[in-house]
Amino acid sequence: MKIAIHGRNFNDSVKPFVQTMFDTLDAKGVSLQISESYHKFLQEKGIVYNSTSIYTSQKDLADAQFVFSLGGDGTLLDAVTHVGDYEIPILGINTGRLGFLATISPDKIQESLDELFNEHYSLDKRTLVSISTQLNGKPIDIFDGLNFGLNELGIMKTDTSSMIVVKAYLNGEYLNAYWADGLIIATATGSTGYNLSVGGPLVMPSSDIFVIAPMSPHNLNVRPLVVTTDSILDFEVESRSANYLISLDARSKVVDGNVKIRMEREKFKANLLKLSNTNFLNTLRSKLNWGLDIRN
Which of 80, 138, 193, 289 is at a distance of 20 to 30 A from 3, taking alpha carbons? Predict the structure, then answer.
């Protein structure tokens, strides 16, 4: 078995759990591939593991059975770009602060590995957004081929002054001109991300929908809109500034104000490993403190 591992910094309290994970993987004879940046950090932390290979691009992961993401949700979003259309199952281990996607706590790593090796898991197939962009009628590649995201597409102003106007078209028909600080188009998975902070709805991850949620709209009657994932969305931006910001998850680029965007459902999925001890409702209750009596 070959497992690829990507992660970010963790504090010393997490180190024993991470070391135990590597000890278990070594004992099982697992062949490891570690991202270049995470390998350097693990060496600095003094984490010990058997000889391994370093991966620097997607093609290095061609024969990996699983990808482990150690960090928070942002780390898992990184891992999704590493995997791309290979659709390798990803296990999110939360060594960070917030984890709607990275749900395995450090003290549950060993239990989760046992379930994985005993094949007590399922695959949670998550929809991705895909974008294409044009400038003056010619295609341009803004994100170096990584034109997809698990959580959302963001269209935002670049400064702190004037609003932008985002003209939106749904399946070729004019939808609305959003006068706002920006627009978030979230997947069901991304409903717990930026979408939530701008007043969008929480959505069950298996739902085949996108949420169009304006950021600080000028018109209070403009509300989040839910559309199906077979929709094709086109966007044009008007701004007093010469440019605006496009983001896919945690990646962002400032682009010319004349750039037009088309967004649709990506052809491939992100496969998240779902273990028997995790589910979305438990995560919601835990992260949002649902059901707690805070009066005491």
Answer: 193
> In the chain, which ranges are continuous DSSP H helix?
15-27, 36-45, 73-83, 109-117, 194-197, 280-288
pLDDT tens for each residue of 146-183: 999 999 999 999 987 789 999 999 999 999 999 999 99
Asked if 73 is an active-site residue, the reply is yes
Residue 197 CB contacts under 8 Å (≥ 6 apart), including other chains: none
Q: What are phi and psi of 208, to 5 degrees?
A: -90, 70
Does domain 2-127+270-288 fall under CATH 2.60.120.200? My reply is no
Residue 120 has pLDDT above 80, yes or no: yes
CA–CA gap between residue 77 and residue 248 (Å, rounded): 10
Rounded Cα gap, residues 75 and 26, in angstroms? 23
Q: For residue 6, what are its two tokens?
A: 């990507």
Question: pLDDT tens digits, residue range 133-144?
Answer: 999 999 999 999
Q: Which residues contact 71 (CB under 8 A, 6 or more apart)?
A: 7, 8, 9, 10, 93, 94, 95, 96, 102
Q: Which residues is 4 bridged to in the sheet?
A: 33, 67
Q: CA gyration radius for the chain?
A: 20
Buried b (16+ CB within 10 A) or exposed e, 103-125: bbbbebbeebbebbeeeebeebe
Active-site residue (options: 73, 78, 234, 249): 73
| Angle (deg, nearest 10), helices 15-27 and 36-45 | 110
Q: What is the CATH number of domain 129-265?
A: 2.60.200.30
Phi and psi at residue 195, in whole multiples of 5°?
A: -55, -40
- What is the domain partition of the chain in residue ranges? 2-127+270-288, 129-265
